Amino acid sequence: MDILSSLNTGGSGLNISELTDTLTKAEIEPRKSLISQRIDTAELRLSGYERLRGQTETLNEMLTLMRQLSPLAVRSDTSAVRASVTDAKALDLTSAQVAVDRLATPQVLNFTGHASADAELGAGSLTVALGSWSGDTPPVFTQGSATANTITFAEGSTLSDVAEALNLLDGVSARVIDSGDGTFSLGVTSDTGTANALRFSASTDSDPRLAALDFAADPTGVQVQVAGNAELRLNGIPVTRASNTVTDLLPGVDLTLTATTAAATITATPDTDGSLEVMQGFVDMINATRTLFSDLTARGFGSADSAGDLAGDTLTESLMRGMESVLARGFGGAGTHLADIGVMTERDGRLSLDAATFTAALTANPALLDPLIRDDLTAAGATVTGTPRVAPDAGTFRLTRDPATGAASLDGVALIGREQEDGRWLYAVNSGPMRGISLTVEADTDLAEIRFGPSMLGSLQSYLGSVVENGAALAQRETGLRDTIAAETSALEALDTRSADLRARYIARFTEMERIITQLNSTGDYLTTLIDAWNSDS
């Protein structure tokens, strides 16, 4: 209710408040509506881009997992030796016999006779060294390459304090154990392997209770189990390893030893069922990605169809075309296509997988999948590890090096290198098309060649990364939309401020108008009264 208009009956009779609101809205609301529409459109497209990014990231994660796919399954005929594929490309196994005569063991030490877990051992220092004890009498300790660690304990240190301090050392595990007879023990365990045994040496000024942990001369009195290597025979050939997880006996295969056995047969056979399941998942993911992209870019023609969040968006449309281009190419020296393993493109653009064709092709040639799922990275004159972060085009890259200084470059890209303990040099490639790999060369190497052939998965990941990674086209679009939303939101806030100012000006002007009209009306009333008085006098 306009109180001013109601009280001022001598004014214009207009509802000033209502008139002010109407005039203010007439000027402000069209602009606010236009800005709100722009914000809604930007938020809708940003939501579409977020859905696109989420789908491509999910697809990329699946491609990463697929690159670990092995067309061969490695099996052991006994649980005493478990086998698993770690590098399908390096795998060259058909069948092997592995006997386990002895498992690798840690050294186990037991320091008994303590009254409680918090039994005080006093002050002093304890030096812990890693190495091996000989079988002589008395035994002789040979320290390994690792530097010995000295732990200093303050007055009042307890058995639990010692266990906690030992646990902080690499290769040492310690705990206080309730023996069940009213006493407590300090149990200490090393890593497995002959060379990982422990030796404790107490300083001469240590409290006698702490010095009781010293076995620098002979571990026999506290040793429950000797540290030892695993002893195996590969096809009858004796070998030893420090761990029960053996990673370097069969190329591309990890062996986990759980018990001794006279013979375990390790075989590799085509894993058609597992590969088929993974490939079907790939086809389903590509189809789901294509469907999402189509829905996002739908233009909404026809009364029954609605436009997608990214209707007509050229970036999304080109992303799908680029993916389809990669999927249609041939890879490897033989130009292997998806069609060679039974993956076909239907008329509507979706992929389909013929299980019978896939199984037959993989059974006949398990290596048929290699150019599709694994990049081909080889080197002459160098050892290469790792994979390029973004798969470059197929080609040969030349390493040039000065043996005198170690300075090296790869196709003109300077490399960071350092000399290793064995005299060889290790170089990290941190820029250029081969960014992400490492190269190891002999000290006298002056020239080497690295050959690279991208796989289908590598090429697809590289293409997706070129669009959706930070700084790429998608990120630029998202940044632009967020900037637009922020700017338009500020514009809305500015219009709210302008609306308040405009209304205040209208109120001020109308109030002044009412004052003038009221004054004029008052003067008119006075003149009318005066004239009426004159007329009555006459």
From TrEMBL:
It holds the Pfam family FliD_C. Residues 227-522 form the Flagellar hook-associated protein 2 C-terminal domain. Residues 12-107 form the Flagellar hook-associated protein 2 N-terminal domain. Keywords: Bacterial flagellum, Cell projection, Cilium, Coiled coil, Flagellum, Secreted. It is found in: Secreted; Bacterial flagellum. Required for morphogenesis and for the elongation of the flagellar filament by facilitating polymerization of the flagellin monomers at the tip of growing filament. Forms a capping structure, which prevents flagellin subunits (transported through the central channel of the flagellum) from leaking out without polymerization at the distal end. Belongs to the FliD family. Homopentamer. This is Flagellar hook-associated protein 2. It comes from Marivita lacus.
